Amino acid sequence: ITSDFCVDHLCVAFPNSMKSANVLSDINVVFRHGIAAAVIGESGCGKSVLVLALLGLLPKYASVHGHIFYNSFDVLSVPFAIIQSNLSKHWGIIPQSPSDALNPIRKIKKQFDDIGKNASRGNFSVEELCDSLTSLGLSDIEKILQSYPHELSGGMLQRILFAMAVCCEPEWVFADEPTKGLDEQSRQQVSHNLLHLKTKKTQSMILITHDLPLTEEICEVVVVMYAGEIMEITNSVYTNGLHPYTRALIAALPINGFNPIPDGPVKNGSSRQCRFAPHCAYASKQCKHSHPNLYSVDDMHKVRCFLYA
Ligand code: SF4
Ligand code: MG
């Protein structure tokens, strides 16, 4: 029994949506306990759907094949009640939008206690919460605990959500686009807080993000997704990114002159070609007629590209 997430041949499709093609096709990856991983890729690449699948939160109408093993359970086939009662208390989730994530008519202290009750550990003492919130750079904690969300700034709310995500000492922390839309100063604060959680609370994290520098600061593993497939698994996109799509993401960073990826993402192209082929400067005849596997470059590094077959 391990607390790794082992994703085995996961395919997800939303049959009733306009796009009948797979949203995720044949995803195979292990998120190891004790390791911080990032899932990156453009909007619509399937990264959010992958994380919903890990958490057992795919909508009922989704058509799902494959397995996700976690602690001797298959998250995809256990009843949701089991996920709620047994599994989800091991998981701390930092939602994307602080203002939507908190109950507007409940004081902060009460909302911490609600989380404690759900995890059957009971109310938190003010001292415990002071410790945790102070370490995230907040002061005047007793006043904060007696406030309603609207009385606090966005930055304060986000730190409160960080503290809420880890207050029951979860085995895993999930963060969805934690730096999206933030100015540089707030971005650095979030990055600092994530690093703090990682060193003080739990090493095991999955970040969904567009923020490549953040993955470099926080994560030991980066999973690069494109059009519903994993294109590369590497320890660093900057120093070890090999896939032409990974290179294109790096070239698209403002610091590198903002070279856009031509024509944007190709969604769910023909399964008989490389999905990146229409945009790839290295595409050969083979790339347009056959589909590359995820080839191992070394133990920790896989690339879905014929150049590394
Ligand atoms: Fe480019 Fe071919 Fe590699 Fe696809 S398989 S990324 S088209 S070189
Ligand atoms: Mg998304």
Automatic annotation (TrEMBL):
Keywords: ATP-binding, Cell membrane, Ion transport, Membrane, Nickel, Nickel transport, Nucleotide-binding, Translocase, Transport. It is a peripheral membrane protein. It is an enzyme of class 7 (translocase). It comes from the Bacteria. The complex is composed of two ATP-binding proteins (NikD and NikE), two transmembrane proteins (NikB and NikC) and a solute-binding protein (NikA). Belongs to the ABC transporter superfamily. This is Nickel import system ATP-binding protein NikD.
